[in-house]
Design brief:
By secondary structure, the protein is α/β, with parallel strands linked by helices. It has a single domain, classed as P-loop containing nucleotide triphosphate hydrolases (Rossmann fold, 3-Layer(aba) Sandwich). Helix content is 33%, strand content 27%. It contains 7 helices and 10 strands. The strands form 2 sheets. Strands 6-7-8-3-9-10 form a 6-stranded mixed beta sheet, with helices on both faces. The protein has a 4-stranded antiparallel beta sheet with strand order 2-1-4-5, with helices on one face. Strand 4 and strand 5 form a beta hairpin. Helix 3 runs parallel beside helix 5 and helix 4 packs antiparallel against helix 5. The protein is globular and about 50 Å long. Bound molecules: adenosine-5'-triphosphate and magnesium ion (MG). Adenosine-5'-triphosphate binds next to strand 2 and helix 1.
Length: 226
């Protein structure tokens, strides 16, 4: 079953002579439970694509279907709720809330949805990501790699059906990167999650089930599963 599907997805920033065609007709599908890596040069449209998949920004044209639902047919409020329940997003720039400590940041998506955290599960994530001693810290007292690990913990906390991760290991050393990938793989198998991950790192990309290659806003390889 396809959990994610894009059709003729286009995103144009600006207009006239300065218009940027960040996505130029993207068609691809992801099956439930698949772990897909997206690779491509800087500026090729990877983050733009991930933002559209997560309903964070509306496309210029085309569609994104998540679990058979055309997400951009939803009004903003419904889209926000849908995103909160279905999707865990790891942002390229982390997007942690500066006035909340590490623990509060991690449980924020759960609490926004009026739920209670699964303590044992949360402890195991925090432990694997090595964040126990930092739970009371504010984000600006953390290193880049530590903030990245908090962003990963937050994305996993609510056990979302889909994890969209933008360079989740971009600021981590190779040992920590392997640990994070291991955690993503184990939790995704345990909870039948689907992962779409952007990376610059070919070694990390090779750990995925499939590699989608993007160039100048177009898919040039790996768009469909076997
Ligand atoms: N908000 C925006 N306004 C105008 N142009 C934008 C905006 N966001 C992205 N772009 C442009 O769209 C293109 C694709 O950007 P995008 O951020 O998706 O690239 P990327 O593949 O994620 O790059 P990187 O690997 O450096 O993160 C680039 O040319 C970028 O300058
Ligand atoms: Mg990017």
């Amino acid at each position: 079953m396809n959990i994610l599907e894009t059709k003729e997805l286009k995103k144009i920033y600006g207009s006239g002579e300065t218009a940027v065609h960040a996505l130029d007709g993207v068609d691809f599908t992801v099956q439930k439970g698949e772990f897909v890596a997206i690779v491509g040069m800087s500026g090729s449209g990877k983050s733009t694509l991930l933002h559209m998949l997560g309903g964070l920004d509306r496309p210029t044209s085309g569609s994104v279907t998540v679990d058979r639902k055309d997400i951009f047919s939803l009004k903003d409020e419904a889209l926000t709720i849908f995103r909160r329940r279905k999707i865990g997003f790891v942002f390229q720039n982390y997007n942690l809330v500066p006035v909340l400590n590490v623990y509060e940041n991690i449980v924020l998506p759960i609490e926004l949805d009026g739920n209670v955290p699964d303590k044992a599960y949360l402890d195991s994530i925090i432990d694997t990501l090595g964040l126990q001693s930092k739970l009371q810290n504010l984000p600006n007292n953390l290193s880049g790699g530590q903030q990245q690990r908090v962003a990963i913990a937050r994305a996993l906390a609510a056990k979302p059906a889909i994890i969209l991760a933008d360079e989740p290991t971009g600021n981590l050393d190779s040992k920590t990167s392997q640990d994070v990938l291991g955690l993503l793989k184990v939790t995704s198998q345990k909870f039948s999650q689907t992962i779409v991950m952007i990376t610059h790192n070919e070694e990390i990309a090779q750990l995925a089930d499939r590699i989608i290659r993007i160039e100048d806003g177009k898919i040039v390889g790996g768009g469909q599963h076997d």
